[in-house]
Amino acid sequence: MPRFFTGAAAATIAPVEKDTPLKKKQLNEGLLSVPSPEDRISLTPTDGNKGESTVSITVVGASGDLAKKKIFPALFALFYEGYLPEHFTIFGYARSKMTDAELRLMVSKTLTCRIDQRENCGAKMEQFLERCFYHSGQYDSQDHFSDLDKKLKEHEAGRVSNRLFYLSIPPNIFIDAVKCASLSASAANGWTRVIVEKPFGRDSESSAALTRALKNYLEEDQIFRIDHYLGKELVENLSVLRFSNLIFEPLWSRQYIRNVQLIFSEDFGTEGRGGYFDNYGIIRDIMQNHLLQILALFAMETPVSCDAEDIRNEKVKVLRSMRPLKLDDVVIGQYKSHTRGGVNYPGYTDDKTVPKDSRTPTFAAAALFIDNSRWDGVPFLMKAGKALHNRRAEIRVQFRHVPGNLYNKNFGTDLDQATNELVIRVQPDEAIYLKINNKVPGLGMRLDRSNLNLLYAARYAKEIPDAYERLLLDAIEGERRLFIRSDELDAAWSLFTPVLKEIEENKIIPEYYPYGSRGPVGAHYLAARYNVRWGDLGLDDQ
Hints:
Layout: H1 21-28, E1 53-60, H2 65-80, E2 88-94, H3 100-108, H4 121-130, E3 132-136, H5 142-156, E4 160-167, H6 174-184, E5 192-197, H7 204-214, E6 223-226, H8 233-243, E7 257-265, H9 274-278, H10 281-299, H11 308-320, E8 330-336, E9 338-340, E10 343-345, E11 363-368, E12 380-385, E13 392-399, H12 408-411, E14 421-427, E15 431-439, E16 447-455, H13 456-459, H14 467-477, E17 483-484, H15 486-505, E18 511-514, H16 522-529
Parallel strand pairs: 1-2, 1-4, 2-3, 4-5, 5-6, 7-12, 8-18
Antiparallel strand pairs: 6-17, 7-13, 8-11, 9-10, 11-12, 13-14, 14-15, 15-16
Helix pairs in contact: 2-14, 5-6, 7-15, 10-11, 10-15, 11-15
Protein name: Glucose-6-phosphate 1-dehydrogenase
Enzyme class: oxidoreductase
EC number: 1.1.1.49
């Protein structure tokens, strides 16, 4: 059943978060007034206006690309479909000077009527934009956040105030913004939550320092570390596919699965935005978070329940069971210029925002192993890259060969043709398909590899929501299962930090590959070492 908020009776929202360490200190010094549990107003509305709650959403960094292209459109989609409470306010906060009208004009250019019910879209946009306001201020100014607090209180109009801050800003100013928001603009009688965008540091040390700094001002359950890939429909469906279908769960182990592949590719390069990327590279940008989080969801044991903590506990167990990653099991690459069809495509270092001598990898492949009883010896192969031959994100599960297969002679020496493969395509054209062997109709015995295909666009008329819609709604409702806990983050960084340091300290030169190709040859040698063929290279691949 949809999680609708209707009328004045807004849905019950999670209880007030605990006082932060800093708040406790300030309370003793008389700097903050925090109501006792007895004095706090219930978030469940009673008769009349008494106890009505409101949600104030502040997009910090509102003038940036992420806010314009993803956050504001996602909030509009939630509003259009009735998922936001009756009383809500959206504030943009950034250093740029801007009026409310100018913010609304900027936001209106990115809103679309891509959602299902297309009636009255123009009117809905107007209603949404009327709830959008702007406040200009510095990210490190408590005074400016105090001014924001006054504006928020005006719009909250005495209701129980719940506040969500979305940090759409560079990581070097996270702490300043969190400090100011916590000290000067926290909710007085409701919850305060902060969404933090990746990157969460560059390695174990910087990530731990960031976590410690955040926890000076916030409790862990106030911090929502967002990885938008966890909000993708097919990633959400991963546990449903496995745990609610009898045919899959018994096969989900080393006994039947030969290897698992997690593949991410983009068909474009940095295109003038290499400044950020060059400081992080493809391993930090994609593998350490997006692909590793999907791997943990894929490989975890059955959780006790669908509760956020139960799911995250199982993910942490997987990450802690993983074998330390060795440099020999990693291949890195960087795309170079290439001319195709009369068009010249620039190399990575041709980007004016990238240093000419940069060794930052734009491609990486790795072989990982989980040392537990379910997955012992099964290679989990990851690869991610920019400027490749296509755009895709998918999970490929290659099953073992059928022992003593009666029809081996029909496949000749290439037994991989007879291997069943489950493909979960996260993007584009979301789909789940299973490759099976089938007899071609006719008098002879000729076998064919066919697909049992669930193509989402063909099966479901409803358009798939953007990942940011799901994650923003979860943050508002206090649902944490798709957000990353601090111990998950520690375990993920401990896996990749040693090999990242080795690559950078030894100044490993990446293998160059042409723009628009399938990536470095070294990735194929890495897979072959574990008797694996990359599944996205087959002629029958969709």
